[in-house]
Amino acid sequence: xxxxxxxxxxxxxxxxxxxxxxxxxxxxxxxxxxxxxxxxxxxxxxxxxxxxxxxxxxxxxxxxxxxxxxxxxxxxxxxxxxxxxxxxxxxxxxxxxxxxxxxxxxxxxxxxxxxxxxxxxxxxxxxxxxxxxxxxxxxxxxxxxxxxxxxxxxxxxxxxxxxxxxxxxxxxxxxxxxxxxxxxxxxxxxxxxxxxxxxxxxxxxxxxxxxxxxxxxxxxxxxxxxxxxxxxxxxxxxxxxxxxxxxxxxxxxxxxxxxxxxxxxxxxxxxxxxxxxxxxxxxxxxxxxxxxxxxxxxxxxxxxxxxxxxxxxxxxxxxxxxxxxxxxxxxxxxxxxxxxxxxxxxxxxxxxxxxxxxxxxxxxxxxxxxxxxxxxxxxxxxxxxxxxxxxxxxxxxxxxxxxxxxxxxxxxxxxxxxxxxxxxxxxxxxxxxxxxxxxxxxxxxxxxx
Length: 449
Hints:
By secondary structure, the chain is mainly α. The protein has a single domain (9-14, 42-110, 121-442), classed as Ammonium transporter AmtB like domains (Ammonium transporter fold, Orthogonal Bundle), CATH 1.10.3430. It contains 17 helices and 2 strands. It has a two-stranded antiparallel sheet. The longest helix is centred in the last third of the chain and has 33 residues, at 391-423. It is globular.
């Protein structure tokens, strides 16, 4: 199994990065020391750019996307969530997060011990890692930074579910605990390399359908139920205050996703090129599909529908992007556009939960759709790159991993929220909610009173 995020030597060797003879001779003649040391300047340059792209998805992409969807009195609170979590997760990732996710000390394929579920602490505070330490063909400190941007955006996605009503202090405490209890173990199990539980089972998750989108989506659903609905929901109108801001954030997320999925090849190669291509195809198809459904049902297409559909397509193609071809991107986009629309409208209204910004319907459902569909679409018969794919077995692996992660994430998220609720108040009181979180919690406002 090719775990693209794994940086273990054997896993990286299996990446199969082809290079032309001319390019190889040029690299060797221009920088023989780098060539001898195994550093590839092309791969390094691409992951440097990809790291910036993925951070750009959160700051300011997701912040603007979410900020435009809430009411005017809560805009800065949403921006605070995204920027605050970026700072917090960066510190935690340095202290122990990276080591617990990717330290492979003592790991052995097929052996189920503690290291199958979480890594060790030998690389806490980046011990033993400097600019000359390599992770495959790139500096390990760059691998650390690239993975850090994924750790940042995942809890930031969750905040859209309880926007406009959860305390900032509770959000920070919940996100810190959730990072260590949910994100890091699942990241390790999927991307930790040989000896990690789900990696050894052969799960396909190229860029985070399970690790990022299913975990964030399920956590969002549990969180919005535990915290409770906004006052007045669903009867009171709660319209987005600035769809121009949301459209701007959507564009940033869409482009940034090229680094999210393309960078997950960990090399500047054909896998990265195909990942970018299918990512764009899926986003375009899902966005157009969502818009078309709205057009047919309500008589008018909307910018909000097009934007939300595109994000659904991006989330859904994420686990499959390094394994499928253009047809796969088209089919995943079509399926996610339909199913995420259904989840974010009909199912949400029927069940009555207040997922403020449709995190579960878009990311949770989208991530699950892509995680399951890759079992079929990775086959070379459908344009994928897996020639000997046993579809039945792979489907069982994908479903088993997805369902297992859903159950664990749901239980762990519920327990963390209950613990946080004992330590601090989870949500603001009615007066603060009515006033708006910008003034009530941060004593500032993004608009003139």
